[in-house]
Write a structure and sequence with these properties.
The protein is of the alpha+beta class. The protein is built from 6 helices and 7 strands, in the order βαββααββαβαβα. The chain is elongated and about 70 Å long.
Length: 216
């Protein structure tokens, strides 16, 4: 991308907080990440890391300099239009401090162990197919799966009634599903955090096994 002068934008939705995200190493012009996932912030928050100076395509509002027709040309005011989401910013800051104290490496190691435990449990279940990274070091704290003969939405709803919170469908990632060959039917996705336990993972596997057995 650099040789062609094409800005590279990295989506770090599932890696921020559990894998090291280093802009200089990735060579990305922008790295986008939500605040409510691995950074443990509130919904509606996020970060956009910029390697250089960002120039907006569309400008509006006046920001802190009300006499201007455009945004101020100095930071941080140039990027801060409208009323700030102060509760969200405070919550995201608390999450970032937690991740910084624990380190993404430590969080990723713990989440990776829980995901491997879940994957091993799913491997013992009939009709269940799990989708994992070929390199375990690249596996984030999510694991997608399908149950043969069952609609993904039905699986998610059934497990929700059993107290297991999952997401079913395409997960806002149609290109990833196209690559995995699951674009037509989607998958069910479970995820873990630094606060989940092995006992909770085992319960998820047990509840899924009960569902699979009852759907024969």
């Amino acid at each position: 991308c650099r040789r062609r002068r094409v800005p590279l934008i990295v989506d770090a939705s599932q890696s921020a907080g559990c894998l090291p995200v280093r802009q200089e190493k990735l060579g990305a012009a922008f790295i986008a990440m939500p605040g409510h996932k691995g950074l443990y912030g509130p919904q509606g928050t996020g970060l956009l890391l910029c390697a250089g100076e960002a120039v907006p395509l569309i400008q509006g509002g006046t920001g802190s300099a009300s006499a201007l027709q455009t945004m101020p040309d100095y930071l941080p005011d140039r990027l801060e239009a409208g009323t700030h989401n102060l509760p969200g910013i405070a919550g995201l800051l608390a999450g970032l401090r937690y991740v910084a104290a624990r380190t993404p490496e430590a969080i990723g190691k713990r989440e990776g162990g829980l995901i491997r435990r879940a994957a091993q449990g799913l491997a013992r279940l009939p009709r269940v197919r799990a989708f994992q990274a070929r390199n375990p070091a690249c596996q984030s704290g999510v694991l997608s799966f399908q149950v043969e003969g069952m609609d993904c939405e039905a699986v998610g709803e059934a497990l929700s009634r059993r107290g297991i919170a999952l997401r079913a469908g395409l997960h806002c990632a149609p290109l990833a599903h196209e690559n995995a060959g699951t674009l037509e039917v989607g998958t069910v996705r479970m995820s873990v955090s630094d606060f989940n336990t092995a006992a909770e993972v085992d319960r998820f596997v047990w509840e899924l096994s009960r569902l699979v057995q009852s759907s024969r």
